[in-house]
């Protein structure tokens, strides 16, 4: 009996050892299969794709969401719906961005064309204003030269006028002095001759000699010339009182001839003076007309000069305004072009990022739909549970 029990116990022990060993072998085999399976799954291209996806912020969030679903043994349908909604939202945003880009691109093109047109117009305005200002400055220089020349000519004519008037006054003064002296001589003769005639009448009544010596007459004329410088009348009276009655007739004839000659000289002087005055007046009138003409021309040139200066100033202001418009349009064009380039760069960056996000979603959807085991393996290996 004891032997049977002992045998039974040995058999039981042996049986348990066999069972335990088999169980361990099964576990080891299962672990090996799992390890082998994981190794096979990690070698799958989808596993590598999931690694790439995890490196992206959106991909990492999607995988964490999937891990939560798997950890809760929940269906991935919610994840699929979420991915579809997210992809649809991204695609919608891309469509909106494309539409916005088209509108902004069109507006940028219009704005840049407008700035370009403003720059072109301002350049043309600058060229036209500077060309006209140059021509007007040349005209101003011509007007100033003509005004200066006319002023010089007026000054020359005025100096001629003053000189001619001074000469005329001096000539008239000399004429007055000469004619006054000659008229005094005539007056002296007019005073003395009647007396001489009386002397001659008395001498003739007494039958005195009718001839006088030529030397006596010449001496009488010399005395008349000497004394007459101070007072011709007094000199003639004094001379007459010294003559012999018989010499009076010859003296009368000489004095009448001198008187008549002086009268002729006075008449000639007066005619010459009148002619000189008329000639001078003619020249003065010509000078006056020349001065008047030059003065009118100078005034006209000065008025034209001021008008030309005003027009030049208008062109200068046009040029300044055009330069200001050019600078404003140029700066505006640069700023707007930079804004458009920055917007385009941002659009391209957003589009690239959005395309990448959409591609990630599509890759995740494909992997979930076709290789969920790879997803589960990846989640487990990366401790996303």
Provide an overview of this structure:
- With 385 residues, the chain is an all-alpha fold.
- Helices cover 92% and strands 0% of the residues.
- α2 crosses α3 and α7 crosses α8.
- The radius of gyration is 70 Å and the shape is rod-shaped.
- It starts with a helix and ends with a helix.
- The N terminus is likely disordered.
Tag the structure with descriptive keywords.
385 residues, mainly alpha, 92% helix, disordered N terminus, coiled coil, signal
Brief overview:
The protein is an all-alpha fold and 385 residues long. It has helices at residues 2-42, 45-54, 57-71, 77-205, 214-228, 232-242, 248-370, 372-381.
Radius of gyration: 70 Å
> Strand tally, please?
0
In one word, what is the shape? rod-shaped
| SSE order, one letter for each helix or strand | HHHHHHHH
Termini gap: 59 Å
The total count of helices amounts to 8
- Give the class from helix and strand content and strand pairing: mainly alpha
Main beta-sheet strand count, sense and barrel state: none
Q: In percent terms, what proportion of residues is strand?
A: under 5%
Indicate the percent of residues in helices.
Answer: over 70%
Coiled coil: 83-160, 252-311
Signal peptide: 1-20
Keywords: Coiled coil, Signal
